[in-house]
Every structure is written in structure tokens, then in C-alpha cells.
Amino acid sequence: MTGWNTGDIPALDGRVAVVTGANGGLGYVIARELARKGAHVVLACRSEARGSAAVERLVEEVPGAAVEPGRLDLGDLAGIREFAYGLPYERLDLLVNNAGVMALPHGTTADGFETQFGVNHLGHFALTGLLLPTLLATPGARVVTVSSFLHALGKVDPRDLNSVRRYGRWTAYGRSKSANLLFTHELARRLAARDDAWDVRAVAAHPGYARTGLMTAGPRAEGRRLATGLMGLASRVVAQPAEAGALPVLYAATAPGVPSDSFTGPSFAMWRGAPAPSRRAPWTLDDAMGERLWAASERLTGVTYEALRT
User: Fold this and answer.
1) How many domains is the chain built from?
2) Secretion signal: which residues (predicted)?
């Protein structure tokens, strides 16, 4: 994968993709490049207005692109069900679980979950489960879940998934990103256990340190001007652009031969550079922990993966 770039994405004509959080940043770049290669892309965004604006912008950049907005609030289980049940397509080749929040002050979702765990993990767990029948009906489908090299900041605690005992914004973020990787591991394991040769792969990726609005969202929400400014400065000086950060995700989503349960990130110190296999904390490959998180996620969301019962 040395030097891999968007020019290496194969033709995607006839494929259908859903990209969450596609109104800006990494998600927008991912959606644009998939559409450029011929995929029909649903830009799943929390804000209808921002989603529609992103579609207009994308069509200007890629004339003739087959794209559409879809309203999806990953912090609202009822809204996730509405989005999933409203998709009119009989096939789904690619689901990119990209949307996320980072290092926010403590808050809860519409269903009472800690915001970062609820949006970053539980929302995508529910969405993937609801779309699973369509994914399973599509040969070669992939589920790509976007984690972070900062997953190492927090190990999933099955006794305190919602960080009730003690909340630290960065620890909670790390836990949610570790949950993304554990989910990928357990989904890949369950898919592999099937004996009917379903060719659906669950993979993960991360952008390294990419220049998006994610880093400043937390301090801005708290009105911490100095922290917002410092985060913004660091992003401008150190981070790679969103176009570069999107490459590992696009590789995981489209490159031939990407193994299930792989974790792709930038090649240089997990920070920047061409896509490459990325290191991950050992707890994200723990079968027992994956099973416990899976069972808790089904219980909390009410979304059960009946086709993958072990």
C-alpha cells in the first residue's frame, strides 16, 4: 500500500454507500471520493441543512455525482431506526461509520447514554445492526468503523460503560474509540463463524492527526477560548489535511484484499502519511471483552443481530 492514493480506488459503479457524518471534514472527503469513482453515496448527517449543503457542494466538485442527503442523529435511537428503515436500496456495499464527537463536556444522548459512548459506539452499533440484513444480501460488502490512535487513552470498562462513576472527557473519548475497535473485532469474529460463506468484512481505520473541526468542538462547547485557540493552532501547524486523513479510511473501504478485523492508519507514527497497518491496544482484540461489550450494546440499544447469533 506504499504511496496509495485516491487514484488507486477501483471503479465503484453500481455500488451503494452510506457515510455517516459526511457534511464536513473526513466524512465529506470520503463521500466525495467514493462518488467520484461512481458509487451512489448517502451522506448521513445530523443536520438536514448541512447535509443538503454538502450535497450541493459535492455535485459542484464532482458533476454528475450520484449523492443524496439523509438525516441521521446517532444520539437518538428512534432517529437511527427511522433512517435505517427509510433507506430504499436492496443492496448496501459499504457502510462507513465515520461520525463522532471528541472530548466533550459531560452530557447525555436522547436515550440517556454518555454522549461520546452513545454517539461514537452505540449509535453506530445500532445503525450497523439495523442495516445488517441489507449488508449480508450484498456480496463483498464492508463495514468500516473509524476509530482513533487515541483509543489507547481509555480501556472499555463493562461495569461503567457510561462513565457514571467518574467522567474525564479524554478518557471517555478513548473508551468510545476502543469500543469501536472491539465492535469491529467482535463483528468480524461473528461473521467469520458463519458457515454460509457470507463475504462481508468488518474493518477499522483511523485518520491519524487530521485537520478537522473535531479537536476544537469540546473546548468551544465549554466557551474555553484559550483551549479552542491552542487546539486550532495545533491543527493548522501539525495536523495533516482532511484529504490525507481520509486516505486510510478510503483504503480500508475500497482496496482489494483488506483483511477482516484489520486496522489501517497513517504510516508515520500513526500520525500522517500513506495508509498502513496500524498498532492497536491489546484489549481491542480481547474476545471475552468483545462479547461482553456486544451483549451490553444489544441490551442498551435494543438492536439485536439475530443473523449473527453465536
Assistant:
1) 1
2) none
